[in-house]
Protein: WD repeat and FYVE domain containing 1
Organism: Mastacembelus armatus
Amino acid sequence: MAAEIHSRPQTARPVLLNKIEGHSDAVNAAVLIPKEDGVITVSEDRTIRVWLKRDSGQYWPSIYHTVSSPCSCMSYHHDSRRIFIGQDNGAVVEFLISEDFNKMNHVKTYPAHQNRVSDMIFSLESEWVVSTGHDKSVSWMCTQSGSMLGRHYFTAWASCLQYDHETQHAFVGDYSGQITLLKLEKQTYSTITTLKGHEGSVGALWWDPIQRLLFSGASDHSVIMWDIGGRKGRTLLLQGHQSQWYQYQLSLGIDSAPQWLDSDSCQKCEQPFFWNIKQMWDTKTLGLRQHHCRKCGKAVCGKCSSKRSTFPVMGFEFPVRICDACFETIKEEDRTPLATFHEGKHNIAHMDMDPSRGLMVTCGSDRIVKIWDMTQVVGCSLATGFSPR
């Protein structure tokens, strides 16, 4: 299912233009070729395929290349026509695609990881390939020499990656729900900070180098915006899917989420929470469970937050816990949805968009690649995820 976050309700919908079939296993990544009617796909069936649109309107593979291990991810640089493929065996393979997109030559194989490569980015500015893997590490390698420059290990699988080419900072999401910010250099690195906010494994990251904003999507069904450049501690929480978020492209226009406050007792009725032994003893009462109001962020008990409401202006398209006081302040127009949902009719594991042409490609575990006309919804915030079953 795909979702769009708008500043106002919209009626325009994506239009399915083409379906590409032929893979014998899940398609893990698909990218649109800029300025060409073409798509590049990599799959668990160990194939790398370049699909070009023929005069008949159908897409046919102009390149069909098989590698030694299932393909888990890719990074394609169009200006240099260099493509990097992450594999299940931990290797990263570099190819050079010909100008007519009918031939692909092997360049190098990088021993990046000891286990499946989960994500990867090629930086032409650094001449580095930065990758994450299921061996709980992030590695960066020189594309000129093919040598390993550095590696950092985490306590959990490193699941996704973003990289700032200008400052050589890497953002790494992992299965514990944390995002680690690293400053990468030749032969060394430094850990800048760890971002904690998700309650499930981080599945996708997207970095906006202009506004210096990081977006993270996780298995807790939420997307969080992290204000990296502003240094104001501003965050934005979006909850629109009922299942895991996998990839997204987002723009702003929604109020920042409040910080959750800590307290030993309910900030409304002042009853103690269950860990507040002293107050429970003094008042001869049982401790209560702590909750948080999604509108004001206060720590409250269940009795003082018995209401539920949608609140799209803060990203909550489904009912969430609201304290009784805040519930009274929410007007009916505040509940007007800002997101529209469009059934993609397949489980979407990866997406890529070309805003200049208004095209989007999606792929997933059903082995089908779909190309969509997004000209009526370009400029909107987009997110994809598995549809609930």
